[in-house]
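Q: Here's a chain of 379 amino acids. Please give me its 3D structure as tokens.
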Amino acid sequence: MNSKRIVLVANRGVAIRSSRLKLIEQIINRGYEVIVITADDEHSRYLRSLGVELVVACFDRGGFSICNDIRVFWVMYKAYRHYKPELIHHFHAKPVIMGSIAARLACGRKTKIVNSITGLGHAFISGGWVKRLAGFGYKLALGISDAVIFQNSDDRTLFIDNNWTKEKCSHLIVSSGVDIDKYSFVTFDSRQKKDERLRVLMVGRLLGQKGVIEFIEAAKILKGLYPNVSFEIAGEYDLVHPDGISEEIIQASVDAGAVKYLGYVSNLPKILKEIDVFVLPSYREGVPRAVLEASSNGIPCVGADVPGTREAIVDGKTGFLVEVKNAVALADAIEKLLASSSMREVMGAEARNMVVSQFELGVITGKQVDVYQKVGALI
């Protein structure tokens, strides 16, 4: 067995497949074996076809589940003991917190630990004791880590100010990167339809904190004024999540003619070629990849003025930022873009230029490799 190994750990395989394939490619090209610890799904099985070894761990993303959390902790601990990797890179809250502790117990200081804070979800949005408990967990895990990667400056400042991590160990790498060839620029002229039927799209898991309700309310406000506009939602239900939106709510909105529900889509690059305005009213993000993918296609975007989304949308240049949880303000911003084809054209071109210059996947991957090398791995 190869003595040089790197382990990547995430809640779901899609988190690695969607934006870390170039990272895996670089690791393998340097003579390393890659092991991924995540759920057994179509995305993780795809990773296996690339020569990645899969260790199945079913993270419970719905909150605390003592029995399952102990089981997953044991899976990680055994894997770390078996492989004795040079470096372990965790993504998402539970892998970061539980995985860091398991790694130190299993491998001591010989293994380098890198943790990515890809976004602060339900615990930080809801606040209260859940947020305090999550903060304690992060402080414990990041205190025994070698490096912490943040995707936006707000999260980095929050963690440093609360003493959950040290400034010297923190690194800012904005976003996970975008494959600009896969999400290629679609010219404004080719996007125009003969019947002038415009499409507004929101993509994201069906959670309240993603702003699904605000998008539906904005669609209801605008539907009467713009009967030629199709308001569409693409994303999967997450009913185990404490903030999951029920099927009844979505179906009622569809039946009322406010929105169309596309379900989970596997062909997003193709769909984006036909979209005129992209919307993500999320309450907080790491950096929303879907916004950057839409921007790469030359689509102006509208989002809430919150951490993470601020990095992905330049207000008044590549789209608009509006007050969070404000459906009226969201509708007003969408209407500005619907009413002006020239504004959509100019902002869409600026959005594409921003992604190419700042968020191209190869550039972001290079920065991740730099962090590995700074802690003494992948040399």
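Q: Can you summarize the key feature?
A: The mean pLDDT is 92.
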